[in-house]
Amino acid sequence: MPDRVLRxxxxxxxxxxxxMLDLVPRDLPAEQALDLxxxxxxxxxxxxxxxxxxxxxxAVLVDExxxxxxxxxxxxxxxxxxMGEATARVRLHVDTADMxxxxxxxxxxxxxxxxxxxxxxxxxxxxxxxxxxxxxxxGAWLLVLTGPLIELWTGLGLVLLYxxxxxxxxxxxxxxxxxxxxxxxxxxxxxxxTIWRTLRAPRSRWERRQIERREEARARYAAEIAAGxxxxxxxxxxxxxxxxxLDLVRHLVARDTVQAKPGRFRLDRCRGCGHVFQNPRLxxxxxxxxxxxxxxxxxxxxxxxxxxxxxxxCLRRARxxxxxxxxxxxxxxGTGKGHFCRVARTVFPDTEFDGLDVGDGxxxxxxxxxxxxxxxxxxxxxxxxxxxxYDMISMHRYLERTPDPLAELDLAAKILEPGxxxxxxxxxxxxPMARLLRGxxxxxxxxxxLHMIPPGNLKRALEIRGFQILAxxxxxxxxxxxxxxxxxxxxxxIGPDAERxxxxxxxxxxxxxxxxxxxxxxxxxxVGLGMVADLLTLPLQRGSGDAYLLIARKxxxxxxxxxxxxx
Length: 567
Ligand SMILES: [Zn+2]
Fold this sequence. Notes:
Elements: H1 3-15, E1 20-25, H2 30-39, H3 42-47, E2 59-62, H4 64-70, H5 80-90, E3 97-102, H6 113-120, H7 129-150, H8 152-170, H9 180-185, H10 187-200, H11 205-226, E4 248-255, E5 264-270, E6 276-278, H12 284-291, H13 300-308, H14 311-322, E7 329-333, H15 339-347, E8 352-357, H16 361-367, E9 373-376, H17 379-382, E10 392-396, H18 405-415, E11 421-427, H19 432-437, E12 451-452, H20 455-464, E13 467-474, H21 482-494, H22 510-541, E14 547-554
Parallel strand pairs: 1-3, 7-8, 7-10, 8-9, 10-11
Antiparallel strand pairs: 1-2, 4-5, 5-6, 6-12, 11-14, 13-14
Helix pairs in contact: 5-6, 7-8, 7-10, 14-15, 21-22
This protein binds zinc ion.
Zinc ion (ZN) binds near residues 240, 242 and 243.
């Protein structure tokens, strides 16, 4: 990259206060430019304060403070996968990011495309990024090429349009792909060739490192699985953990829809109070087995992507709290990597945010400056020391994962002084989608959810503990993706990703790859149908999202509390 280009880019970033600037070669080859345009809307990227980093994979300017916080070594010589991951991650440490097209040469990188797409995994679920891109381009190609066989002239018109698309796409952008004419007119030939080269390319250093990490994990998983899954379940209990009733009924039996780890898990429902719970329940050792590599280890990058794309949910929670209070000190219990606090700080700039979690993500959150103080512990262990220190406690998607949710509520009630607030979001096992999708309903996350609490039960439990419910909000269906997600989970159960270390004691052979590939082919119609079903049922789901959000106030007798009802 010429020095003057670099200097001009740095000036531009400084002038506009941009923390991270991705430099895109003006003559970026057409296939890379199409990938970039397919996956990134530059304006949305600029305006998104909380997403992951995206770019073209050539050069990124990052402000020194952000770079230092990220812990990423700023150097050249990264391969496509390393560059993609570094670009994605470094964005978490700067406030603003943008892209700029600059005059420096692009190069043919088809051989690195697979690693690039995998490392950037631009939308959740990240595992589907590569197949989706390849199916998308391959499917369009097949449709266009069979057109002339069905209706000659219309078909040829379609082929012509297919060739012209690269010209049309780049109109109005500063991109001038050097190979535009070739890419356009040879597109019917080049598309399958590019797909072939993407799939057949030799593994990059980044991909080899991913495989090494998986193989390291494989031995440990193999030993744990050989020792037996039943060992990870405790005793079956005869009574409802919420109300003590003995009138229990089998609710459903589910398999692990998050990672397809082995095992079957039974959920019971109490006929007395409607509480749904795992029975028998996983032991702490069992929970550790099923939680491993979901948000940490092998699943770390995917989890960052998923949480970063959920900023809207975090904003909605913070805005609900804003209607009732402006807390001084806020404790987020089950904070994970602190993504909620990162977003909520923008709504409450003067509030001190502390985070609590058992995983090491909470320490990352403190390093990133998203929380002021990290407690790496379980809430029940550290909680008694926190009495009187917070005027707001939040628990988002947390209570359902705890072994004893009522004890968690007892402790929250003890910590908060009168006038303090409690903000809780948890899935509603009585919502229509839960009934329809059963074990595939995404919020069950079997076997990671131990308790599913109907809203009426939670409200009563809070009132008994001296809280007044100020408002209840229904989360809208997650952009209507429940059925599609359930279909994707089903595909994953039929033909799990062959490379996952818990799928077998030995690295995957041809048979496991064929099974996974068959499932992926099945994914296209199945997930497609799911998406249609999501669209069709969206009007029916309105006002009955998969989770409910409650804000409650510890009653302070000296202040009248307004009752607010929410639709
Ligand atoms: Zn009960």
